[in-house]
Design goal:
Layout lengths: L5 H8 L12 E7 L4 E9 L6 E9 L2 H14 L4 H4 L4 H7 L8 H18 L13 E3 L4 E2 H11 L4 H8 L9 H14 L20 H20 L3 E9 L2 E8 L7 H16 L4 E4 L8
Amino acid sequence: MWDYSEKVKDHFYNPRNAGPLDGANGIGDVGSISCGDALRLMLQVDPATEVIQDAHFQTFGCGSAVASSSALTEIIKGMTLDEALKVSNQDIADYLDGLPPEKMHCSVMGREALQAAVANYRGEVWSDDHEEGALLCKCFAVDSIMVENTIRANGLSTVEEVTNYTKAGGGCAACREGIEELLAKVLAEKGETFDPAAAPKAKPSSAVGNLARIRKIEEIIQAVRPNLQRDHGDIELIDVDGKNIHVALKGACSGCQLEATTLGGVQQKLIEGLGEFVKVIPVSASACTH
């Protein structure tokens, strides 16, 4: 598990400025529930001075997403819009006395929501929609421009770091080559050479062993089952193959229109519990042997 600062814990358990904001005149929406994180940032801006008088948020995501959103609203209140736009994702992380590397994407999402909200207030068009051919990571709907900008802004140099900051590459890993090309491009601009051998970084010595990891996966899935069983569904762990976790949906969950959402939710729980990116792969219940 990750080591969270006391500030992160405080902003998660006692979030500031959570919930709708009456009179909001600038609203920014980023992310998507299907990708695991979504954030709405609402601003109340004084039209005469462009000072942010109040800021609220609503988020669907992990504890770090809640804490980052809470911190962002506290940071920007009292700032002008131009001052707020200078707030970086690192400023958000620093305000929280740091975020685990695997959770830096939460601060990046907060910065994007701020840009979207300011654009909305000013009547400008801000969109994270992807131009044709620009979508880099299909698993988490991350475009190449966002990855390239994040590499530059945060001085990233490995694929692992890019995944931590953007989620790109955290699913099927089919976009790894594209991420490497962007790293090589940005590092070359600084006269540096991308070294593929430097990624991924070695795991900390405290990483759980394989048997303990499987047991942890089983525990997480067991914790999910009661919610599915209440709707006459169920889930069963079938196999663990590295980053791929094979499961079978049963009962009402099998073939349900919300099957993809259920699998996405289980995957997010596993990512949170294991402290690593994994992919949940459905297996036909009829193909399972017992």
